[in-house]
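Hi R.,

Here's the chain you asked about this morning:
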Amino acid sequence: MKKPSINRMPQVALLLETSTEYGRGLLRGIVRYSRLHGPWSLSVAPGHLEQTLPKAKSWSGTGIIARIHSPEMANLIRATGLPFVASSLDEFRSPRPGDKFGEIRTNSAAIARMAAAHLVERSLRHYAFCGFVGCAWSSGREEAFSRYLTDKGFHCQTHRIELANWMRWPHWIENWEGEQPILVDWLKSLPKPIGLMACNDNCGREVLQACAAAGLRVPDDVAVVGVDNDELMCELSSPPLSSVALNLEKAGYESARLLDNLMSGHLDGQNVVQVEPLYVITRQSSDAIVQDAPCVTSALRFIKNHAGQGIGVPNVVEQAGVSRRTLERRFFEALGRSVGSEITQCRVERAKRLLLETDLPSHRVAAGAGFGSVKTFNRAFRRATGIPPKLFRHNGKG
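And here is the predicted structure, written out as tokens:
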């Protein structure tokens, strides 16, 4: 009797940095896919972006997932003839027709809109963007950020850091010594207070250092938000850096699924994986509330700190120290929404984080976010997001 054939275990090279949250997030999703649908033999080298293919003679690759940092790296991957899934393909030559490839794209437009909305909610009147020269994803975020603000009737000033080798840490440090004084002068020239989006957390940390060198107060003079939510780096910043969190684990999982299809020849036509934003993690760097009316400022801070505790409009009115009619009028003049709407919005944002960061059942998410019942929670969440909480959790976790 003929023995059934046993397929060889896929050997997949992961050319992704372990030094950043972007790389680590993708790796977590890839590992989860391998565990559920593999097993795969995974090869990864701890380090930054300058990754290379495995050199061990025992490695007989069947696929590659990579973050491309140079044309040389792109050519090296293509020369293997292996199926691959890679990010940053748009920075180099278009893939050749014969390539078995997939692409990881970061939804820069959605990320920038989320960062802009976060700063606009602070009732700021001036805005700026800081990014990198010659970097496609940075340019995409800059364009979308400026467009969002223009549509809202605001103007955005921009600055691009000239760091040709920003992906390579020694070169970053060398070039930064010359770039920081230029950034300091630009920051000093901006109208204050101002809301600033940095293209990623690395850029955001440099902005914070430049603010300190310029003697500018964060967030009172400059409110800053970055991208990637590299938690350790954000918390080590001074002050801690707010950041747009990305759904990297889901993108990593879907990248592995795409590579699996490429390796098996079962690609269904979809060869792009999107990295979507989740929400803004608010830390001290953007924790600013700029209002001419002290009662509105007091009300906003009280809502932010206590929305999860079942407060109502009367509690906010008592804290603001004015009549309900006066508070509602000034609140709407400043923000274009009611006090009750602000409470609900804060609760929905808290619920989003609980849904994605925990496995709590619906009734505990509702209670933790400050909703009085699951029914009220479901109704408010669907009205704010367009989808029920269960679907939001499913879409976010993959």
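One quick note: The chain has a mean pLDDT of 88.

Cheers,
M.
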